[in-house]
Amino acid sequence: MLESFFQLKRNNTTILGELIAGGTMFIASVYIVVVNPALLSQTGMPYEAVLTATVLVCVFSSVTMGLYANNPILVAPGMGINAYFTYAIVLKQHIPVETALGAVFWSGVIFLLLSVFRVRNLILKAIPSSVRLGSAAGIGLFIALIGFFNAGFIVVKTPFIGLGELNSITLTFIAGLFIAAILSVKKIPGALILSVFVTTLLAYPIGRWYGDASAVNFGNPRLVSMQKLLSTPDFSTVFKLDLLSALHWSVLPAAFGLLFTDMFDSISTFVGVAEAGNLKDEKGEPRRMEQSLIADSFATIFSGLFGSSPGTAYIESASGVQAGGRTGLTAVFAGLLFLPLMFFAPLAKLVPAIATAPVLVIVGVYMMGAAVRIAWDDFVEAIPAFMAMALIPLTYSITQGLIWGLFMYTAVKIATGRFLELPKTLWVIDGFAVLLLCLEVA
Fold this sequence. Notes:
Blueprint: H1 2-5, H2 15-29, H3 32-40, H4 47-69, E1 75-77, H5 81-92, H6 97-116, H7 119-126, H8 129-150, E2 154-156, E3 161-163, H9 168-185, H10 191-203, H11 252-277, H12 289-306, E4 311-313, H13 317-322, H14 328-337, H15 345-348, H16 353-368, H17 379-395, H18 398-415, H19 424-441
Antiparallel strand pairs: 1-4, 2-3
């Protein structure tokens, strides 16, 4: 049954090969079960509840991807977009968590409609590749900056930011960063989760020998608070979204950022994984792209319902593809492996911020690879890309970086007399972006 449903022979693979690939994919991505709750809990959401929501998103979304799109793509709460949800939407704009989750849900619904009616093809063609690449690199810088801040390695200093104090906390972070870097360079399977584990062990003496453990864990003394290994899953954020408040005009910029970030991230991931594993159709395009985007949009809808930042296709899926994964069975198995983790919230709470911070920095390195493909010798392409890349971390807003990158691209095309090259859809997007800026000012 599995062989016929997933077309294993046609894809030159076996059940055992798919299961091994799914396990590899799981090991490469399991760090999100620790990192996502660590980030989202800063909004005031219960850590255990976010962990449960994260696991549910991983399971339901990956299984949906495997069964509907039959692609070896794991889907989980996205890095970068979870930081955007936490810092830019909830903490900076002071949007209530329930309303923000409603915005996640509606962005997923819109993404689904755009995918079903193929409008996303027009949007994709309208956004210049240079701005997309610059945005991807900018998100990488954004994620790395958050990691440095969480570790206290970078701190706010008058008038800007600077290097923090070198103490037991930051030195432990540096050690963890070296470990994560070395494991990644050596391409050790599960490098990121291994670095989290080792750095947690290194951090254990802090609070025992060097002072208050709360200094390394977002203000909560988690390193010394574990009383049991297993716990009942916390479903307190499930179905707690506020759908009506999320439709207010003031929330529109946040929903816009979620939608476009999720969409661009998903499309770039599908393209990257398809290139890595030669998973293409007869036209040379990523296979079953439409079905994959529909499955990915459901992941965002699930995220809003369960209580997490948007789910998206994971670039770590390439590890499973390289291990031999060729069908949706890989994604289904990888997703199901997450299910037991929702019962280990007390164990996950032992992981301090300085243990997940190196992961954020390394993930930032991964995402910076997009900058290589920017045509830096062509200023018409390079300047808009740089605007997006620089403004995303500097403004703590993916939306702002994307908007000003598009504005600059439009401006330089007009200035060079090449405005006829601008797609009509881009003019519409620019107009919508002006409206969003006016709403933010208002």
